[in-house]
Inverse folding.
């Protein structure tokens, strides 16, 4: 079927044995979250007739109204807004930020510098080329941040000190690591931030929840976060939703976000679903299971590349708080080989050979491997990285572990081949 040599097959079996404990823990998390999701569907009376298409204004669309209640229950929130017309995760986060923040307010990011694509939204793009584009800065919203500590973790003392210094409207946390090697932020760490914020005023705690949904038994809103947001072509869409995003949290804040998504006075009362309801329902129902498969793929990747001598983060046996697995490939040749090998195991575009290219918005060449049914779907298996020190690759997703395992073995096969060539050439 697939030709892997005996050595690689043996390494794969050893990796599976190493990851056995992690797999059991992941199964426990997955079953808990899948049961919780099923209960949300049952409690809210989901029925076939609410999948019907609405057009025009979309008034009284029961499918749109019920999916909000289902999702809110699934993440322990007062309210939620799940929509196909959020174009991406960055758009969803921007709607939430503009929905809540007003001129003169201060947004305080306590997880260090945010991900690249949110910087122009805030108005702090390093190229300073977003002036007068309608950023938060253009509207008079101030930005401040608390850097991570030396271990790449939240600086609780620094957060408290900053909150005592002057008023803050929003405390913002990016849960996932982005293109960095810092640990992802756990729900328990978010709980600690919430406690600090509550001791020092009434700031809104907002979490960029991308890549983190269903990886733990609790979500940030379960422990007091006021607002979370994310993309449906990542974890919560289960590989079925073709587009969209969600915002969930306090009812009053979700309402403000709805006014930003549409218009003041109308908010969530308008918005035709255009036949997307069925795939959104199927996607969020499937989400917990697919996230479990992605976590297993990450754990296997970690164990296999540890056996090949590569450093990984999270490390083997470490509890995961998002679906991302970083592998420090050490050399650009190994990084490129990893991505090209992974592409060979993709169900879509397996014949394509990824090459590094000058991607807009990045300060070095970027290589990306992805064979996805939905363009840009991060819950489907993909890997990408900028070609710069320490030449780490970030892998995420996997609709099912069994195909993900094959793709990762293709990546290992190419890396082993290139390593041999590099060694033989001195």
């Amino acid at each position: 079927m697939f030709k892997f040599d005996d050595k690689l097959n043996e390494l794969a079996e050893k990796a599976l044995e190493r990851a056995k404990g992690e797999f059991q823990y992941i199964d426990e998390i997955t079953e808990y979250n899948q049961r919780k999701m099923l209960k949300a569907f049952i409690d809210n009376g989901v029925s076939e007739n609410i999948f019907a298409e609405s057009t025009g204004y979309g008034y009284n669309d029961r499918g749109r109204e019920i999916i909000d209640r289902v999702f809110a229950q699934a993440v322990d929130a007062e309210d939620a807004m799940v929509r196909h017309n959020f174009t991406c995760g960055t758009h969803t986060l921007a709607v939430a930020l503009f929905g809540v923040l007003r001129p003169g307010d201060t947004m305080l990011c306590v997880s260090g510098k945010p991900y690249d694509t949110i910087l122009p939204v805030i108005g702090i793009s390093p190229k300073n080329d977003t002036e007068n584009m309608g950023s938060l800065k253009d509207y008079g919203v101030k930005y401040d941040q608390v850097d991570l500590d030396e271990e790449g973790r939240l600086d609780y003392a620094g957060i408290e000190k900053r909150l005592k210094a002057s008023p803050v409207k929003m405390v913002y946390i990016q849960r996932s690591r982005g293109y960095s090697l810092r640990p992802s932020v756990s729900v328990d760490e978010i709980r600690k931030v919430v406690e600090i914020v509550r001791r020092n005023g009434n700031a809104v705690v907002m979490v960029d929840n991308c890549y983190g949904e269903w990886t733990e038994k609790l979500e940030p809103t379960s422990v007091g976060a006021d607002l979370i947001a994310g993309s449906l072509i990542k974890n919560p869409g289960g590989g079925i939703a073709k587009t969209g995003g969600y915002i969930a949290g306090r009812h009053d804040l979700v309402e403000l976000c709805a006014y930003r998504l549409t218009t003041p006075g109308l908010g969530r009362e308008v918005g035709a679903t255009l036949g997307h309801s069925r795939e959104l329902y199927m996607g969020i129902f499937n989400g917990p299971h697919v996230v479990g498969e992605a976590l297993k793929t990450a754990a296997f990747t970690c164990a296999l590349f540890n056996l090949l001598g590569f450093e990984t983060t999270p490390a083997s046996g470490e509890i995961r708080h998002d679906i991302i697995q970083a592998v420090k490939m050490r050399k650009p040749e190994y990084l490129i080989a990893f991505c090209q090998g992974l592409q060979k195991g993709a169900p879509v575009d397996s014949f394509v050979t990824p090459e590094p290219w000058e991607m807009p918005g990045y300060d070095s060449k970027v290589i990306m491997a992805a064979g996805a049914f939905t363009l840009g779907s991060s819950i489907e298996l993909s890997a990408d990285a900028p070609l710069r020190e320490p030449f780490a690759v970030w892998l995420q997703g996997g609709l099912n572990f069994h195909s993900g395992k094959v793709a990762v073995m293709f990546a290992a096969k190419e890396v082993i081949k290139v390593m041999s060539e590099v060694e033989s050439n001195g």
